[in-house]
Amino acid sequence: METLPLNLILSFFNIPPLWKECLSSAFRTALACTIVAIVTLYGPISITSLITFPAFSYVVVILIIINDATLGDALRGCWLGLYATIQSLGPAILSLWAIGPNRLSKGTASIAVALAAFVVVLPSAQSTHLIAKRISLGQIVLVYVVAYANGVHIDTFMHPIQLAASTALGVFACVVALLLPYPRFACYQVNKNYKLLTNNILKRLKLLVSVISEEESISAQGLISRAKSLATKRTKIFSTIMRYLDGMKWERLPIKFFKAHYNSLGEKLQEVDTNLVGMELALSCTKSFPINNLDQDLKHGLSTLEEHVNLTIKNAKHTFLGGGGSLTVPESNPKNITHFLQSLQTIPTFHQELPIFFFLFCAKLLHMKSSTEGPTNAEAQPTKEKENSPKGRDKWANLATKLKSSNLLPAIKYSFALGLSVFMGLLYSKESGFWAGLPVAVSYISGREPAFRAANVKAQGTVIGTVYGVLGCFVFNRLVSIRFLSLLPWFIFTSFLQRSQMYGPAGGISAVIGAVLILGRKNIGPPSEFAIERIIETFIGLSCSIFVDLLFWPKRASTCAKFELSQCLSNLFDSIETLSLVGKTDSQLEENQRKLKVQVNEMKKYVIEAEAEPNFWFVPFHSGCYNRLLGSLSKLVDVLHFGACALKTLQQEFQRSDNFVNEEVNMLQSELANVREIICSSIKGLEEISKMKSFKFVEKETEKKKNMSCDFEMGKSREDGTWLSGLGEDGIREIIENFLHRSRDVVEKLYSDEGEKELKSEVVLSLSVVGFCLSVCMHGTIEIEEAMRELVQWENPSSNV
Q1: 717 - beta bridge partners?
Q2: For the whole model, what pTM was predicted?
Q3: Which of 169, 221, 506, 708 has a CA 20 to 30 Å removed from the CA of 444?
Q4: Is 390 within a domain?
Q5: Which of 9, 4, 69, 130 is nearest to 495 (CA)?
Q6: Which letter does DSSP use for residue 717 in this model?
Q7: Tens of pLDDT along 647-666?
């Protein structure tokens, strides 16, 4: 039961879903801030005397509740607030008692902040949650800077206790706001989005199967476009589900059964979606419709498979969402559902026919994944590794190395930036110096953040929020008791602001805090003076942060995107080099493909950051070129996943008996190695170019390669060097069709017995998929070549690339 009355009201007025999300988030945020305001402005003296940092109570509320939080997030926030308080204020009490507040100076306070921040930031993101680090860093800034500002008037024990009480008030307000007037459960959000995801998958499946039977090309393209539109929505649904997973863990009983059942369904839907992506890729590579090489039996078989998968997924959803057992799936042998694929007894001779074989292969995998019972391989693998892995000691032995490589330098850099921000803020104003360090503390993120873009949106958010707060005070000058109500429209506005590409979460949170700290407090003096002072202090802190970022290990988002591109090309080279028909290389290929997928996702994050990063005196970021590179790399990630599945089947079959691993298979392996070498030679050259800082090195290497004689069959020519684009479409078609002819000969010689019809169809389908994957890899590499050539030309406009 969640937000039902509010949803009914919003549905009655036909309010769009985005507005519903923003209004719900704004209402909860306003309620939590109202609770803090009532307690701090109108609470009994016994409580208000203990909560001496109302500003930080508002900050804690914003950190926990601002991003569509649920009750589980608030419960987790209770633990994170307690953990952060023990981590920061426990040592602070001892250090203040040892040093003495009256002996603190600007320098010693800044050094204490820097050292304490280093201890907080040093642990990895997996060991300490981001919210806990932000709360802890904010407490560190306040406890030392306020102790220095007030000197002998500070009680070394009560001062941290009062800060802890202010933190507890913010956490308490979040819990109450997410309980009243009705709880906002993460479980409800997950269930609701699983319904949306399941419906999305089923609609896409129906559309993709319908394309096969479509007689008109225009209608088929329309169905494919609708499927792509649904695939875009699926990405948002997946991210929403992942967003609420942590909160759901705090709401459910820690019973292993619930966790296993939930993970099993999540893994299954992920695998089903992956196979749908493969079917979409197959149709996007189909040149013309209708598809003539599919008979009626195959079309009917696909329709039957679609109906069975549909019922299976619906049943899984119905069971998971607590619908009981009224929906059942007709019992059938999985081989009966895919029996229609046995009619595939001949490998196609033309590469234009490969997409439909790839489509049928993905449909077969789709049926297998949707019908699998119990935990998936991905889910069971970690347990197996835990049980059998003898590397327990190695983890501890490598801990120092991992810490040094991942967190040590960023921790030093961040702690120095925070210490410098505090020092410069105290130079400007002793009483308000903490406003320079607090924005830097509460906006900390794990890993590297683009300095210019982050500082830009934080500064703008702080200014517009503060200006709104001053205007609110002016309008409600004589109605102090209700001026807090003016924050409600501001919460709604900032909810949209956080979802915008221009400002994002960092700018939205800064805007919220800027207004809340003025309208939610009293006895701050003239609001205009307070606003100007706070803007100046914020500017000082953010400037120090940028200065440190540029002084030590400077990295722009565009530079990181280029580095990730070279890493992606390196992993792509390793993945394609592992393609093999003999030997047990399937696990290595799956591992390389997984690394490539992670690397592409990292590159995507940096590209998004670089698009919003100011250029200043740097070369403008070529976002269009990088997005094309991302599209090509993502396509290769998907196709290599299915290539790994097909090769795994072939490796198992060719190793089933010794007489299979003979001259025929070795000749086919040699043909595969030839194609693989053509692709890898081009990718290796692209990787080398992506690592070069200056185009002069590229020009020198090109001059050397022009003087070398090259073999056209290996994808090289005197003019094009190692580039695949030198082959042209005819050259690629010839290479792929040679592989298909060789595969056809091998299959006919090895499976001439009539009793091996089922086995033969499986090998035919898998070899056709390998041929399709090689074709897509070659075309994808050419796309990367063209984008890289454009990128190098963009960065070197005076040269002729």
Answers
A1: 721
A2: 0.78
A3: 169
A4: no
A5: 69
A6: B
A7: 888 888 777 655 455 777 88
758-770 average pLDDT score: 84
Residue 721 β-bridge partners? 717
- From CA 726, how far away is CA 721, in angstroms rounded? 8
Q: What are the DSSP calls for 706-767, one per residue?
A: HTS---GGGT-BTTTBT-GGGTHHHHHHHHHHHHHHHHHHHHHHH--SGGGHHHHHHHHHHH
Q: What is the structure's pLDDT at 314?
A: 72
CA distances from 717 to 671, 679, 702, 709, 720 (A): 20, 14, 12, 7, 5
Q: Which residues of 523-533 are buried (b: 16+ CB within 10 A; e: fewer)?
A: eeeebeebbeb
**Can you tell me whether residue 721 is helix, strand or coil?**
strand
**CA gap 729, 683 in Å, rounded:** 18
Q: What is the pLDDT of residue 693?
A: 67
Residues 44 and 15 in one domain: yes
Q: Kindly state the average pLDDT of the residues 716-737.
A: 70
224 vs 207: CA distance, rounded Å: 7
Of 120, 155, 127, the closest CA to residue 141 belongs to 120
616, 546 Cβ separation under 8 angstroms: no
- Report yes or no: 262 and 253 within 8 Å, Cβ to Cβ: no
Task: Give the whole-angstrom CA distance, residue 151 versus residue 528.
Answer: 27
Contact of 453 with 467, CB cutoff 8 Å: no
- Copy the structure tokens of residue 296: 């009626």
- Tokens 């900390």 correspond to 444
Are residues 462 and 369 part of one domain?
no
Cβ contacts of residue 427 below 8 Å, gap of 6+?
A: 106, 433
Where a domain ends, among 502, 517, 551? 551
Structural domains counted in the chain: 3
Q: How do residues 216-266 score in pLDDT, each as one tens digit? A: 778 888 888 888 888 888 888 888 888 888 788 887 755 444 444 555 556
Q: How far is CA 551 from the centre of its chain?
A: 29
Q: Do residues 493 and 432 both lie within one domain?
A: yes
Residue 380, pLDDT score: 36
Q: What are phi and psi of 635, to 5 degrees?
A: -65, -40
**How far is it, in rounded angstroms, from Cα 342 to Cα 622?**
49
570 and 535 in a common domain:
no
Range of the domain at 650: 557-795
Chain-centroid distance, C-alpha 557: 16
Q: Residue 302 sits in a domain of what CATH number?
A: 1.20.58
Mean pLDDT of 462-467: 80
Q: Using an 8 Å Cβ cutoff, are 421 and 541 in contact?
A: yes
383 in a structural domain: no
Specify whether 669 is located in the same domain as 542. Answer: no
Residue 720 has pLDDT above 70, yes or no: no
> Measured on CA atoms in the order 606, 612, 615, 616, is the torsion positive or negative?
negative
Within-domain flag for 394: no
pLDDT, greater one: 100 or 696: 100
Q: What is the rounded distance in angstroms from the CA atom of residue 684 to the CA atom of residue 263? A: 39
For residues 121 and 40, state if they share a domain. Answer: yes
Say yes or no: 669 and 623 in one domain: yes
Give dist(CA 764, CA 342) in Å, integer: 10
Q: Give the pLDDT mean for 547-571.
A: 83
Same domain, 247 and 149: no
CA–CA separation, 443 and 638 (whole Å): 35
The answer as to whether 396 is a domain residue is no
Confidence of residue 135 (pLDDT cuts 50, 70, 90): very high
- 789 is written with which tokens? 């050539």
Residue 13 has pLDDT above 70, yes or no: no
